[in-house]
Amino acid sequence: MYRVFEALDELVTIVEEARGLPMTGSCVVPRGDVLELLDDVREALPGEVDDAQDVLDHRDQMIGDARATAQSTVSAAQAEAERLVGSARAEADAMLAAARSEAEAMVAAARSEAQRTVEDATRDAESTVTRARADAERTVQSAQDQHDGLLSRARSEADRLAAAGRSNYESAVADGEAEQARLVSQTEVMQAAHRESARVIDGAHAEADRIRTESERYVDETLGALEDTLTRSLREVGRGRTSLRSGGPVLDHRN
């Protein structure tokens, strides 16, 4: 760096001692000496000045690359968010379909069980009535052989047995209907599946929003860091040029 100031001093000396042209402010200087001193100045200039000029020359390209990288990052984040939402929707649809299928199977099983219970109760009631009638007929036949008063008691017993059969039949039917209602009430599983699918979709949307926010923040921080670097480089170039114009020392601000 010292050679820069030394060469500048020699240039000043050559210009001051050069022979002036009459009636003009111009002078004659040795071209070879001046060019040689300028080459010395160019070679002695620190490499950071050239690097800073390269940064200035490629500033637009660097900003364009940074913007392309940011756009690619945002696009990738949006694609990932859409993939998460699609996956969540597919999972929710599968859960809903499975819950609906299970609920329909449970309802069908409940109906089948209720129908079977009713049929069993009907058969038991009919069998009870048949036995009661048979017993009543036997009782009536025996009573007719013994006494007319026994006929009245036999009919009462037949009526009692028939009433008991009807009671058993109605009780069995009521039990079957209660069992059917209990099994059908289990369709609440479908409602729980709806709620779970809604929760999964909401969680996927929240995760997509989070990924998009983090991507935008990362892009903003990256562009901000690049802007700071370019600003510092431009300041260093400006200081170097100002110092060269003023003939003062070129300060090294890297420390």
Write a concise synopsis of the structure shown.
By secondary structure, the protein is mostly helical. It is built from six helices and two strands; from the N terminus they run H-E-E-H-H-H-H-H. It has a domain at 87-236.
Give the topology:
Elements: H1 2-17, E1 19-20, E2 27-28, H2 31-44, H3 47-57, H4 59-146, H5 148-184, H6 188-246
Antiparallel strand pairs: 1-2
Helix pairs in contact: 1-2, 3-6, 4-5, 4-6
Distance between the termini: 17 Å
Number of strands: 2
Counting helices, strands and paired strands, the structural category is mainly alpha
Shape: rod-shaped
Percent strand equals under 5%
The DSSP helix count reads 6
Biggest sheet strand order reads 1-2
Organism: Nakamurella leprariae
Protein name: DivIVA domain-containing protein
Salient structural properties:
single chain, 255 residues, mainly alpha, two-stranded antiparallel sheet, 6 helices
Please tell me about this protein's structure:
This protein has a domain at 87-236. The chain contains six helices and two strands, in the order H-E-E-H-H-H-H-H. A two-stranded antiparallel sheet has the order 1-2. A hairpin with a 6-residue loop joins strand 1 (19-20) and strand 2 (27-28). The two termini are 17 Å apart. The chain has helices at residues 2-17, 31-44, 47-57, 59-146, 148-184, 188-246; strands at residues 19-20, 27-28. By secondary structure, it is an all-alpha fold. It is rod-shaped, with a radius of gyration of 52 Å. This is DivIVA domain-containing protein.
